[in-house]
Amino acid sequence: MSSLTSLFSRGLLGARCKTCLNLAISRIKLLHNKREVQLKQMRKEIAQYLQSGQESISRIRVEHVIREENVSAAYEVLELFCEFVLARVPILEAQRDCPSELQEAIASIIYAAPRCSDLPELMQVRNLFTTKYGKEFSAAAAELRPDSNVNRMIIEKLSVRAPPAEVKLRALRGIAQEFGVEWDASSTEIEFSKKHEDLLEGLNSSAIPTASTVIITQSMPPASPQDGLPITPMVQSQPHLPVPAVSNPAPAVVSKILSVGPEKIELPPVDSSLSEGPRGASDALERARAAMALAERASAAARTAAARINAGVHRQAGNGKQSG
């Protein structure tokens, strides 16, 4: 009973495989003729763009032309593989394992089936081969494992990667020569040779402000054209103040360090009426000078505090040595 069941399923598998392969071959021929008409129209449009000087559009359109030409070439190879497998369906039915002479054709069909959405018959053929030879055989071809035996041309032509610059330039020259367009490819060669920067990189470290830079800004009204003096924020660089490190400072010194800090600078707001006329510009400059003076005083206070801290640390260190 089991032998009759296997024989029946084997004959059913062969019949379904023949039907799907015949439909796939017919559809590939139909799509090939349709794609040829579309490619001819697309190449003609690109030639018109080249003739009118719209090279930027031509550089974009030519990628689609190359993609369609690659798909058309892949379909031609798949058509040959389908015809090859169709002629040897009786051998597939008679043998349990995949014959060595059919491994490349079957693996290529399994790999190309999900990448050819306009050939649904290939997916049915792939399911039949998966049922007969197992999921591991189908996964090896789909994942391009070392022993998958998928045709190299099928892999290259069905790739979704953008074509190289040399291929695009060669295609544009071929289109210009085909339609007799006098086209200077120097600008396109320069454009293709450019190395575009990665916009996803982080900010440059030089653009990040450091703690040693003190930026003093004040909300000032926009300068009028009659003033003739632009109002910009002033930046004054203040160096770091070195503080000697002590291995075990006394609590009094620590409290003194925590209590001493730079003076707080508070600038009163500027009256908007001062921005009118030359008087407003002169008052703005005076306030800017006052801000710089306050910054100098803050820097002097910080240096004085650092000197006091140094003196306290040295005294504490001397007392520790005497007590020891």
From TrEMBL:
Q: Name one GO biological process term.
A: protein transport
Show the InterPro entries listed in the entry.
Ist1, IST1-like
Question: Record's superkingdom?
Answer: Eukaryota
Family (UniProt): Belongs to the IST1 family.
- What is the official name of this protein in its record? Uncharacterized protein
